[in-house]
């Protein structure tokens, strides 16, 4: 329904949480944040914020992995994270172990050729 534009992201997240029985109190949601910086810039040129439950949904239907650059997938693999259902379970464990409710850096990639930097983290 989300892919067809019938519902918005927020509605998809609520539906997913209701189906899984994992609805969380307000203020407890985790967000996947992606930031892309140009060389020498302090402010990102791209900011992406996605509810983590939506990222899990995309992972289950196979729409997430194909959109992630291979160099970022390689960094995730180094941390033992595959972009599939088992990988998301491992990511949940990583968040619990390292996060303590705060920020968990998933990938921090710098392109030496053009100086771009990509940060991916969950908070």
Would you tell me the overall average pLDDT? 75
Main β-sheet, spatial strand arrangement: 2-1-4-3
Proportion of helical residues: 25-40%
Low-confidence parts, pLDDT < 50 over ≥5 residues?
A: 23-27
Structural class by sheet pairing and helices: alpha+beta
Number of strands: 4
Shape: globular
- Evaluate the radius of gyration: 15 Å
Query: What summary fits the major beta sheet?
Result: 4 strands, antiparallel
Number of domains: 1
Distance between the termini: 27 Å
Report a brief summary of the structure.
The protein is α+β, with helices and mostly antiparallel strands. The protein has helices at residues 9-20, 52-60, 70-78, 85-99; strands spanning 31-37, 46-51, 104-110, 117-122.
Descriptive notes:
This protein has helices at 9-20, 52-60, 70-78, 85-99; strands at residues 31-37, 46-51, 104-110, 117-122. By secondary structure, it is an alpha+beta fold. The protein has one domain (27-122). The protein has a four-stranded antiparallel beta sheet with strand order 2-1-4-3. The radius of gyration is 15 Å and the shape is globular.
């Amino acid at each position: 329904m989300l892919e067809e534009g019938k519902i918005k992201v927020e509605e998809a997240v609520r539906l997913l949480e209701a189906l899984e029985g994992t609805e969380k109190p307000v203020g407890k949601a985790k967000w996947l944040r992606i930031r892309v910086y140009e060389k020498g810039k302090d402010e990102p040129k791209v900011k992406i914020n996605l509810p983590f439950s939506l990222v899990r949904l995309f992972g289950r239907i196979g729409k997430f992995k194909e959109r992630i650059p291979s160099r970022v997938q390689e960094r995730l693999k180094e941390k033992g994270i595959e972009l599939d259902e088992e990988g998301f379970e491992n990511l949940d464990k990583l968040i619990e172990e390292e996060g303590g409710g705060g920020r968990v850096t998933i990938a921090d990639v710098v392109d030496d050729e053009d100086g771009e930097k990509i940060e991916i983290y969950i908070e």
